[in-house]
Amino acid sequence: MLILVIVVLVLGGFELFEGPKWKQSKTILPQIVGMWTGPDSPQIVTAENIFEYMDGAGELYLGYQFDYLEVYEYRAQNQPEILVELYFMKASDDAFGLLSLDWGGEPVKLNPASRGEHSIDDSQWPQVLYGEGLLRLWSDNVYARVMATRETSESKKAVLTLGRLITEDRKNPSPPNLMDKLPASFEPNWILRRDRVSFFRSHLILNSLYYLGHENMLELDLTSEGVSAPYEKRDSSGDLQRIQVLHLGYADPTRAENALVHFHRVYLAEHPPPEHSDFSLKVVNVFPLEDGWMGYRLKENTLAFVFECPIQETVRTILEQIN
Amino acid sequence: MAKEKKPVTRRDFLRGTLGTTLGASLIGSKFLKAGGMTTGGVASDSSLVTIVRDKGAMDSDNTVNSDVLKAMLDETLTKFTGKPTAKDAWLSLVTPEDTIGLVPTPHLNPTHQEVVDAVKSSLIEAGIPEEKILGAQGGPDKPKACTALIGLPGLKAHWLTGIGTVMKLYILYSGSPRNYHDENSAKLGEIWNYPFVKGKTKLVLVDALHPLCDKGPQPDPRYKWPYNGLIAGTDPVAVETVCLRIIMEKRKAMRGEDWPLSPPPLCVETADKVYGLGTSNWESIKVEHYGWDQDLLLG
Predict the structure, then answer these.
(1) pTM for the predicted model, two decimal places
(2) ipTM value of the model?
(3) Residue A270: pLDDT over 50
(4) Helix or strand or coil: residue B91?
(5) How far from each other are the two terminal CA atoms of chain A, in whole angstroms?
(6) Is B245 on the interface with A (CB under 8 A)?
(7) CB contact under 8 A, B182 and A204
(8) pLDDT single digits (tens) A9-34
(9) Which of A64, B131, B203, B289 to pair with A260, CA 20 to 30 A apart?
(10) What are the angstrom distances between the C-alpha of A306 and each of A119, A293, B21?
């Protein structure tokens, strides 16, 4: 027993002396990229000093499971500067979530150095997006922004090269499981807007996607996860209709139940929440609100919501079809 | 007994009860408007907002042409005040005895230094001693050192407050800017009513040369465009309302459909209805535009 204790202490001591996690980063970008020269080591930003680095933007990254940030600045004569920010997150779902906040840009595949070019990415969820000098990508647990202050043909080449270097030898995990729970369409003719689907954990980020209220009425935190998904269809007169679906997952059923009660108190104050005894079953409710029918389904540790639906029965249909 | 604060939700916007809900939640603030009269902001009855644009204000690399900018500034001053020269215009707003604070915005879509320099030069030409023109962006000590303020915000949306242009300009004067995010962004107007700020703002001149229409939080070149404009007024809420209109129209043009700001900009309505700083009613705002009129984005 004493030997076991000593072994554990020794191994623990090795871990203590390994140093901060960011020092173990495998990403070491080269100092020279084309015409550009960068630092021999990056600036490191942690959760403690992220607000000094980026003021209000820090809350975005803290709204996911942020670990640390590496910053590289590249400069070249007569060329725009290139800023590289590598956000190391605690899980790949969080890196994916950051990219999912904006699917705009050209999806690209960063091919191996031997081929030296890039091609269009037509996969289900792009991993790399480029537009007007800005490259954004998700690679395992890294979300990266590589931005030239001005786009030139040379800077684009350098930006894409940096993107390739960032993604080399990284794992390629699947997107968050919650992303697969929503059907591509509902009857009649409601089609998912894939380019507007986002993964989040924080109520601040939810509000930037679909504003419900400033209070954290859904009790979201870093142990929870959510998908924001709009669906659209054209009505008989050709006008565009849109409904909003939210699908949330919590650490356990109790948290989901508490969130529903809180939501009722803030958003549905005129309707009492379900009785606690109902929470052992699946709970589905639908209400008429100012902008259409709104409904929710509580099932185990998940909550699904439909907002702005023009037809009451469609709300129930949608809630039944969410996995 | 303390009144329970009722949280603002999407439904308040849909019902049109935002002002009531926010007003109720802010009861107790000594910086609310008193008796329905405007107590802060700028000393002006006008809700005139001018927009001066010149296609040549920036080149294809978005480098500012200082000569063109100076001409735009001169036109802004004379058109807004109705005075014949920029010097006369300035002297109708400030005096050589004033200590004038210039208040640019440093983050996300920062005010062009060329705009700050042009304003400073113009003030000096008007006879304001250079030592009486201070940089006044920062903590509470900045406005306390000034008798007049000239707001010079960059036009931008903001991911936490919807819009981050005029009402957010003085957030650092609070000494605790993080207290004014989220729902508390509705309280941004109260900073304009602080005793050491109230009544000092003589002009709000928005740098609309290269605005940002999506919220950030970091700059994204896809959402910036060369509007090449200066937007001016003495009613900060009216100026913000015009800025908001431009951002919304640009977003709509980009997507081909309505693209609302989320979260919605609570601060604009409360600045009007709770803090009495000016008008957010489009019908009560007179917009005069001069110069380049392509894609004016006023709806």
Answers:
(1) 0.89
(2) 0.86
(3) yes
(4) helix
(5) 49
(6) no
(7) yes
(8) 554 444 444 455 555 565 679 999 99
(9) A64
(10) 37, 8, 25
